[in-house]
Amino acid sequence: MAQNDGFTYENGTLINHIGIQNKSLLAKIENDVAGFNAAILKERGGIPGNFNLEHLQKIHKQLFQSVYPWAGESRAERGGFQGVKETEVNHIPQEMRYAPFKEIETRLETISKQLQQENNLNGLEPEKFIDRAAYYLDQYNHVHAFREGNGRTLQAAFTQLGREAGYNIDFSRADPAKYNDARNFAIVKPYAPQEASKNLAPLKAFLNEITTPLPGIEAERARTEGASKTPEPSAAMKRIEALRELEVTGGRIADRWDIAVKQQVKNIVEEPKNLKTHDRDLRTVSKAILEGGVKPDHYLYQDAERFTKALDHVKYVSAGKDIPALKAPSRAQQLQSGQPKNHTEAKELFIKASAIVSLELKAHGKVTEGERLQDVAKFVSKVPFVGGVNKAHVNNALDASATVPGLKEEGSVIDIKNAVSILEKPERAHSQGTATKVLHQGRGGVER
């Protein structure tokens, strides 16, 4: 995090009314005050608004004004603040980058208008409400409007959004770490746009855990009346998604292949017309990965493919044209795309799918099954084999997933089954060595 950025003192502590310089003490006071104010907001039903920047600023100010003199100011104010957060998804360390501070207002207006086209999610049955709420929560999370307090501001906003749609979204019912993991997973987008629902699966599982229908005639009416068909993303929303896709794939390529990509992508995300300057260089990097010996099943190769498509889409953005609609794959194509051909492909598929399923299991109270599935994934990342006790842990996780709403037929569960169909057989090339050793390791629980 940057220091002395307009929101902080020289030592990096956030500027506050009391002049506290101790970060831990300030965090405790801030949390207590914001929690108290959030409870008042919830009791009042929130603050009227359209969930755009102006509305979120009012919520942020209500929560933090007694602590911070800059409460209600977005990152774009006081000189602008960008910031980067470190995270790890699928055992891969990476950065989370938020929307450029200059675009905060524009992007929130775009998201707000799309939300209004869906009548602020009124008239939706629980499963559909959670599905769409997860989509919007991810969009708002990525904008990250404020220097500090984004999570609590969005929790207050979505508590209000849920209430107005007939649902109680109670963020206090779940472990904050689960929310952070699900939020980060959605932001870094480990899956390509064709499988976008997988990126949101942990966030949906989290919301499913904390969302219940409100009692009363008014709430029932809100859930059953005023529904609108889920609209196609507007041209402005497609623009946001194209730039996000370029940034997440470009960031991973920069960290693992060519650091120069990071600044070039940053220039394009902040101003898409800069694509003309960097397009050739970025495509050269992408081509070098695709033709340079990186295996097609490796995530870097897959990111290079995604990166190239993102560049194609941003070309439309830079020219001010609408991006062609992305055709969703058929069910048969989804099943086929998730069918690995060898142990290497099966290993990568198992690790990705297990990350989603384990998060969902833990979010639904299946903590042991979720953690053991994660342990198996860690083992598979080193040795592509599933047998013995590990096979039992996977089966237990699959049995548990059948009891989770919406997870039984979810693509990640199918991906695990497809991967295990290969991983349960030792690699032929190592049948006399590594695989035999692995078979004898299955007696003491999860292999390590």
TrEMBL record:
InterPro entries documented for this protein: Fido, Fido-like_dom_sf
Enzyme class: transferase
Annotated segments matching region Disordered: 427-448
Tagged with keyword ATP-binding: yes
Entry keyword set: ATP-binding, Nucleotide-binding, Nucleotidyltransferase, Transferase
Gene3D superfamilies assigned: Fido-like domain
UniProt cross-references to Pfam families, sorted A to Z: Fic
Signal sequence coordinates: none
EC number: 2.7.7.108
Any one Gene Ontology molecular-function term assigned to this protein's record: ATP binding
Top-rank taxon: Bacteria
Catalysed reaction equations from the record: L-threonyl-[protein] + ATP = 3-O-(5'-adenylyl)-L-threonyl-[protein] + diphosphate; L-tyrosyl-[protein] + ATP = O-(5'-adenylyl)-L-tyrosyl-[protein] + diphosphate
Protein name as catalogued: protein adenylyltransferase
UniProt-listed GO biological process terms: regulation of cell division
Domain Fido: 51-209
